[in-house]
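User: Run a structure prediction on this.
Assistant: Running it now.
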Amino acid sequence: LPPPAPQAPAGGGVARLAGLDVRGTSLALPVPRVDASDPNAGFLAGVMASAPAELIAALQAVPAASLETRLRELRAYLEMGELAAAAQTLAALEGQHADDWRVVWYRGLTALVTGDKENAALSFDAVYDAFPGEPAPKLALGICAEVLGQLDNAAEYYRLVWMTDSSFVSAAFGLARVQIAAGDRSAAVRTLESVPEASIHFTAARIAAVRARLRERAPDEPLLADLMAASAQVSGLAGLGLDAVRRERLSAEVLGTALDWVLSGSPSGPQPAAQAGARAPGTLLGSELDERGLRFGLERAYRMLARLAEPGAERIELVERANRFRPRTWV
């Protein structure tokens, strides 16, 4: 599943990753393999990458439709948001192949996309009963449990998938989402940091871990350990080729949280253990860990973002934000 974009901060309280995009996450579930014995298997292998509208036209031109072509047509309708056509196609399939596990899977997928959460869970549970060792039904049931508000069940399904096969990074993001929703910030950070460096989602997971540490933290919490860990991770991501825009935005988030913390009196707590790549406790991302230093750091970050932005309203807003953070000086 695509990694979720983090939500904007909204004051103190429990951190949140972005709300679950049910439609997008559902359609990113693993796609059942085409039955090699289907008469149109060869045709489908040649059109799998086609855009949905083009695919539907091609499928409707097939001389003799088969179960696999109808299933692919149903999926294309779901991808296009043509829910009435999807429901009609599903009804026809259920009339002819009601007990086929692929039809049951797509019944669940259609129900999830259309908001019929209970029927989605029943359908995916039936597939899980038929294939208890497969990760895809567990992942689907995790999504169902999450949208039904059954956080413990969702966490268990996501954890089963993630512990079994680390190639299903979507399970790690799902587990982190429900851990944050349950108020277990530390567990969410550990889950996101468990995504291996070899994964194409490693950078997204580390960005999400930084935000899970700091977003929606009350400034009077003892944040020093998390601030230093976040600083080390942002620096590490820069070394791994994180693009300048995301790097500066993430730096601004860390520095902004630190400034709020300093202005609240820098509440003390357990001091962070020395961490590889972390700077001394007196600095954060190259800025002194005091009001003046953090304001200069934020000004630099927003001026860099302004230089990287296209000319227009966004650039003007970023320059104004940089000016607001600039410390008062005599020159």
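The longest strand covers residues 283-284.
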